[in-house]
Write a structure and sequence with these properties.
Layout lengths: L2 H55 L6 E8 L1 H4 L6 E7 L6
Antiparallel strand pairs: 1-2
Length: 95
């Protein structure tokens, strides 16, 4: 068996099956915990917005036009608490 064939075999027999199973488990977890997850998401985003408002009041950041807030699947199953926030600021002429 060549290296390429071995990698294809491993992907088909192990990786694909693992990811399909993981996907099913995550879907079930989300379905069972949707209200709690949504509440935690909203509260975390609310806290972030309050912090931004505070920073703006102190003159540490300009007015924000858009906020993109996201987190990885690891946040859902509790293995991570990382999230990503991206902010787009208004043009200087709008400030």
């Amino acid at each position: 068996m060549t290296k390429k064939e071995a990698l294809k075999h491993i992907k088909k027999e192990y990786c694909d099956k693992y990811f399909l199973q993981m996907d099913k488990e995550i879907e079930a977890f989300i379905a069972e915990n949707e209200k709690k997850l949504m509440s935690e998401f909203v509260e975390n985003f609310r806290s972030l917005c309050l912090k931004i408002k505070e920073m703006q009041a102190e003159g540490l950041t300009p007015k924000i036009a858009y906020i993109t807030y996201s987190f990885g699947i690891d946040n859902i199953n509790g293995t991570s608490q990382e999230y990503q926030v991206q902010a787009s600021f208004r043009d200087k002429q709008d400030i």
